[in-house]
């Protein structure tokens, strides 16, 4: 039996402090381009696969990251001997993307981009972007950045960028049925993880290690302990505030989706909050 409260509790604790995260639309390393939410249900099992399409300037590519949540996940990626809850589905041919970009900007000579095997036409016409509601930043006069390219392409070729069923079911058992697909929903970024309180022994070990390499500049172990405890109190206040206002179980999107998953009845999803997952609502994405 699927229990609504267990689903919400799982989502509330999606951030493990390491490599599992709740759906991060304001990710500082990726300019948001588009989103989709896929909801799956089976006999006593549930799963959610969130697609986040974004441009990562450090990796110099447009990535389709799929974030997984559920009570039956399989084949999760691992990093540093820990599970992660996402992987990069890489929809764009690497050679094609390299040929289309120069230093993060659209190559003036590029005409197409190969996405999931389909050749998509690239536009160099500023009017096309303006009609799509994309105001060009123009880091250089007349230039078009690759996140802007992606934002226009997704309006023209949505199906090409969506995860395939094979990609979605990578970490979801195949017998689960896709129950609901949302391209827009009301969302809050939520970054709180389990609290990390250093023990006195851990602080002392850190003190000894840093003292040995001259990194404490004469600070005593008592002063280091006081500094760390003050920081923990400050962070504890921030985490409590975010927990109260932003955790998934605190607002209707996930409350209603949990009920959909419990019952199998999609009519329980009847949002009253305006959707905000469009990239224009997440200006801090890619900010680093």
TrEMBL record:
InterPro entries listed in its UniProt record: DUF7003
Superkingdom of source: Bacteria
Pfam families listed in its UniProt record: DUF7003 (PF22535)
Entry protein name: Uncharacterized protein
